[in-house]
Specification:
The complex is a heterodimer of chains A (109) and B (112). Chain A is built from no helices and eleven strands. By secondary structure, chain A is mostly beta strands. In chain B, the strands form two sheets. In chain B, strands 2, 4, 5, 6, 9, 10 and 11 form a seven-stranded mixed beta sheet that branches. The chains are: A mainly beta (109), B mainly beta (112).
């Protein structure tokens, strides 16, 4: 089976940097997705990491270590609109996506 | 390009009934996946269809079924509804394996 862990809740201040961690245990690992989901809305794609290392996309960056079963999402220059749930999802060679329970991020002024 | 659409957006049913949900993927996307989202269980994978074939299936009972048509539109059916089936049902489309999934707005199902 697959086990995915991420913190339930995090709070940060507007303008700050926050790192959301995700650890996983799985067989047939292919890659790891990060999605953002605002309350009452559908998830939207943020990143997909297949290889080890850091990928940067504007204010958002995602890191993957396949050997450690570890990923993080880094959000810089936080804005109020970044308050949302952040979901990591493991994608396997069998073509299945398994999602973590999500981390609810609250950005305060 | 139009996004993923799902109908209906809201649905109220009673225990024992059956329900069919519909999903129209983004034009050109042949993969459609279905998920159930509840506060307690998070996002749970139901199944994935590609070119009218079920390619993957999650750990849900046989009451949950689906199909995909030649135009890539997909339907999901739940028979003999139970209270625990109350959830947000999301479908997501993509061009293929390992590619970004685009989610629809979901169908909020309430079972009374």
């Amino acid at each position: 089976g697959q086990n995915i862990d991420q913190p339930t809740e995090m709070t940060a201040t507007e303008g700050a940097i926050v790192q959301i961690n995700c650890t996983y245990q799985t067989s047939g690992f292919n890659g790891l997705f990060w999605y953002q989901q605002h309350a009452g809305e559908a998830p939207t794609f943020l990143s997909y990491n297949v290889l080890d290392g850091l990928e940067e996309k504007g204010r958002f960056s995602s890191f993957l270590s396949r050997s450690k079963g570890y990923s993080y999402l880094l959000l810089k220059e936080l804005q109020m609109k970044d308050s949302a749930s952040y979901l990591c999802a493991v994608y396997t060679n069998a073509g299945k996506s398994t999602f973590g329970d999500g981390t609810t991020l609250t950005v305060k002024p | 390009k139009a996004g993923v659409t799902q109908t209906p957006r809201y649905l109220i049913k009673t225990r024992g009934q059956q329900v069919t949900l519909s999903c129209s993927p983004i034009s050109g996307h042949r993969s459609v996946s279905w998920y159930q989202q509840t506060p307690g269980q998070g996002l749970q994978f139901l199944f994935e269809y590609f070119s009218e074939t079920q390619r993957n299936k999650g750990n849900f009972p046989g009451r949950f079924s689906g199909r995909q048509f030649s135009n890539s539109r997909s339907e999901m059916n739940v028979s003999t509804l139970e209270l625990g089936d109350s959830a947000l049902y999301l479908c997501a489309s993509s061009t293929g394996r390992g590619n970004e999934q685009f989610f629809g707005p979901g169908t909020r199902l309430t079972v009374l």
